[in-house]
Amino acid sequence: MSTPYYIPETNIPLPPVDADVISTACDYCIVACGYKVYRWPVKGGKVGGAMAGENAFNVDFPVDPLGPWVAPNQYNTVMHNGEPHHVIIIPDKDSEHVNIAGNSSIRGGAIAQKVYNPQTPTRDRLKSPMVRMFGVLMPVTWDFAMEIAAAVGKHVIKKHGENAYCVKTFSYGFMENTYAITKYALNSVSTANFTFHDTPSDVTSTPGFRDAGFDNFGPAYEDWRDAETLLICGTDPYETKTILFTDWIMPGIQNGQRTIFMVPRKTGGIAYAEKNGGMWLDIQPGTDLLVVNAIARVIVENGWEDTDWIQKWVNNKWESSSGFGQGTRNTPWQWRTTWGKFQTAGFEDWKEWLLSQDEFAPENAAEIAQIDIEKIYKAAEWMAKPREDGTRPKTSLMIEKGFYWSNNTGNTQAISALGIVVGAGGRPGQVIGRAGGHQRGGLRGGKYPRNKSPEKLPGRRRRAMDTDRYLMSGHTRFAHVIGNTWIQSMCGSQSLAAKFDELTVQNPHQINSFDKQEIIDTLIKRVDSGGMVVVNQDIYLVDPIGARYADIVFPASGWGEDSFTRANGERRIRLYPKFYDAPGDAKPDWWIIARLATEMGYTGFDWKNSNEVLEEGARFSRGSRKDFHLVKVAAHREGKTLHEKLGEYGTAGIQGPVLMADDGSLIGTKRLHDTTRVLPEDGPIGASRLGKKLTHFNSQTGKCNIQKSPWSLFSDYWAWLKPKQDELWVTSGRINERWQSGYDDRRRPYIVQRWPENWVEIHPDDAKARGIENGDYVMLYSERIPVQTDTIVGVEGDDFSFSKLMENGHIELTKAAITAVAIVTPAVKKGLLYMDFLHTAQPANALSGRVVDWISGNYNYKMGVGRIRKIGTSPYKNSFRSMSFARRDIA
Amino acid sequence: MTVQHSPLDPALVASINGPEEVAKTGKRCVMNRRQFLLTSGISTFTIMVALKSGPSAAKVPAVVSTYKRKFIAKLSELKQDEPLDFTYPDEGAYAESILVKLGREAGGGIGPQKDIVAFSYTCTHQGGPLQDTYKAADKALGPCPLHLTTFDLTRHGIFISGQAYQSLPQVLLELDGDDIYAVGMFGLIYGRHDNLQG
Fold it and tell me: Which of A48, A675, A755, B31 has the lowest CB atom count within 10 Å?
């Protein structure tokens, strides 16, 4: 497979009986299926035979359906302890959890193609540290690169302050790494110029959940199966978290579950649900709140709400304001700007508000969202109408980024209230949560220094710094970028790139020397002159952040190259053991950070291996949804390391928070907010922490806050943005076959053949009007991409509303354009274009406004607007080798 | 035997198969060992293959079986969008395959319209049966009853949507007068570790 063209193989070596078998989990989506690596030496020429006794699977070939078949994409060769080894990586056929009996998606299914092999397109992995000298990134030693980075970093902090040192990092690249990174950035450097890969500010992704008291990942996977009605907002799990659909929701549908998808594009899972009695709520972008509230309105007008549940589990007037400084008035969203905008005095107060808002009348919601009004009534009926015998349908609600990455605060408030009134949240099959994107590998080694953030909102509250706006204002002098693209993953990508360009390569102070001190001096002159130095830490050279703007590059190692720990979307914590050697001099992120921190003069980074990092970090997981502190306690009691103990759980792992029983054994947590769970009567055992979230909700009382979700806080932006004249909505999201920026997928010939570049789905009517056919190259462009400028101090309540920002000159309109290959399909709603969300060369986010949700600080990534025109014919239009223009919603 | 990736010298292939065969298959991609086997008429022989990843680049002998040339159907009897079932490359597990005249030019298609193609019927994800799932409107097979994968028969069996670990194995066809023959296969058939060991 050394060619970029996919050439199908017709045979595969089988692992011999004595092959090493290593349990691990997939590196990609939130579901984190269990996998097994079969590894055996190339030396000796040994391979397994086709009969059961002759291979490591102990089965006869050909195998049965669902058997341990090995596709050629599941085979590779690696170096292990310096010797070449064969590896076969297939889903764990013995798995009893997550991917039961060893199912997989196309992503994880071909994960063997991820590992470094110089004979495959992975050959360009970063293998040594590099410093840009004479305009070129040249390989250097770790010492050379570290001394320069540390000297410049120290200077920046001393002369320009901690906030001039920015850390923009992945949030999930394993707990060992995120612990080291956050310890460095938030504790040692103590900068407020810090955020994660998917947001300009270190803020919560689901403010409404937080206000209501819902954890993002409370549910167990079986709850999604056991729901009788399931409302899925802003995602098709079949496309993006496959096994959650095929192994959990699909059996639910087969068992009669009524599944409702609220999303503007129909894909395989939605087509399957529709064919089996489900419903597609095909709304246009940004109108979710109206439809959710219209459904809620129909429910309460008919008296279908779950009265018993509400009585018991919803805060009344006094409870809403109860607690010493702990009432909802003290939740971030109340405190900031919008006193009284969200808080209610309980269910009746919320109901009165809901019924008084004309925009939530089903007629109005259906018109603005462009859907059949009957779907609103039907959804309300399915979700809440009691049966003739008085029993209620078990209803669950799932949300993901297609939903909460537009009108972030409003949408998440609205869905929380709808969930509460149908009795979802705290019982088996009756849950509310996120489907999830990436896995959960965050572990905080420091507290965000909010008091240093310049974002001061009305109501005396500070919000985490908007790192993009701070950089655009020229305050960031040192950008330390870890494992993300930054520019393409943020909105208004192209004007952001222009600023990076100005601050780095256009600055007159460029390295034209081989002398370390001269290099340091040059970079110091750059930052003192208002420019910026970029350090990029990644597994591949990313364009442009690494390839064009970085002065120093640190090569990182990843999955399978060190032993790491991470949790999945039902808080299942597992060990991902090292099974092969990282390429060249690539090092795990925790090692790189420890080396840099030590060079900078910080202490507390003297770990010898990744287990030591996790053991130090374990206590900081206490009280969190993936609290695994007790695993360490048990491990040490048994004379084992934490990694050894976690490894014993294999692909089953253990679900956090982890408690300890009387006999010292460990107990996992199937679901959070489990009102049916009985905790030990005599209190916690040992160091166990019986937090509120185990059996109650994350609020001041343990009951839910039912909150208002006013459309007016967002409607000005929506009305200004919505397509004018021949503009169309440009929205984006994941596609099943590609993970994140495609850093692995564009090095997989099979996937490259399917998706050689970015594409755009367009409705046949819109295509016809513009003369666009399947396979045409098109240009998507706009001259009104709004970009929020200036860090202002908010005084009046609406100072940060879009209208006020516009009025006061804090919105600049910029140009943007991206190309794509057209796919004409009725599977997208008319008036809307859909693209893959993160191609480095053709980034969809370029067409989304860089204006944050003014309550939460998150972008409206899913709301772009632009024009589209044909620019020619792509090579894929009339050849058969690459792409497919067949519709993806065949059922 | 181990999977080999090294392309064979087209000149070598030409010397065995004749120049037309190279011309016929050479347009698909760089001539490699699999195509070499597909285009050869010999049933079993031994070739020397290089182990690319071994400690030494020693050449080792490998026993290789090749594909039978099998009569499938008469061109004149095929009707558009009416699939015909057959078995290939043997009568073993997962040999069931589909032959269909798509009515639209397709990658690897034969006949005057280059629209006749043949594929394995077994999903290359988890082995689900794709029999009776032909979709004439989309020229597709699927969705697979197990996990919903669909395949585009106009584009060498690449998946349209779904989870398959590789394209649907395509049966290589030859037209001899009015007779359609299966002569080889691209891609590993589900369940097998070698296409010729069913």
Answer: A675
